[in-house]
Amino acid sequence: MSELMDVLEIHHYPQFMDKCCDLINMEWPRSKTIRLRTLKMSCDNFPTCLVLVQSHEVIGHSKITPIPSLPLGCFIESVLIHPKHRGKGLGKFLMAKTEDHAKRRGMKTVYLSTKDKQGFYSKLGYTECEPVQIYGGPVLSRQNVKFVSSNKINTHSNINIPAQSASARASTTYIHNSVTPPPPPPPPNPSNSNTLVTCSASTYMKKYI
What we know:
alpha+beta; Aminopeptidase; seven-stranded mixed sheet; two-stranded antiparallel ribbon; 5 helices; 9 strands; globular
């Protein structure tokens, strides 16, 4: 492994932001404006974006995000190695540096989620755990994961209606009392599709550091 390789906090090296943005968008395409905005949120106290740099070339990225409900825990996400540099042990190197960074910030446990890299993370000492919520709100449990047939998804469901003012409620009541409500929507057409949609398809894992 080259001595010129290092893992850097991107907010201290903004010259790498454009290259890092392009690398991440190779794997997970997104608006460059939004991606750069996320990278610019990196700071010393989390969230922190780390870049793996070799000879001024960005070849890897990871992000450490705080977990509001777990002050001594953090979430590692967006772990990525440039395709032409894979298979050289750089993923393991980047993860070790990322965990070390979290440990220096006082973290005791690191969490992550993956869809198809369970074997890789198991070799690094991670074990499966219950899902964690990193953006606030209740913690999801595997028992609460529901499978929904794709041909039964209704565009009228799961719509959040904001709280109404008193005048709006009065207006709504008047309308409901004076106008016949429309008939319910027709049932979905039968289909032979067996496609399933889940609210969580990832495996959550953790490691004590």
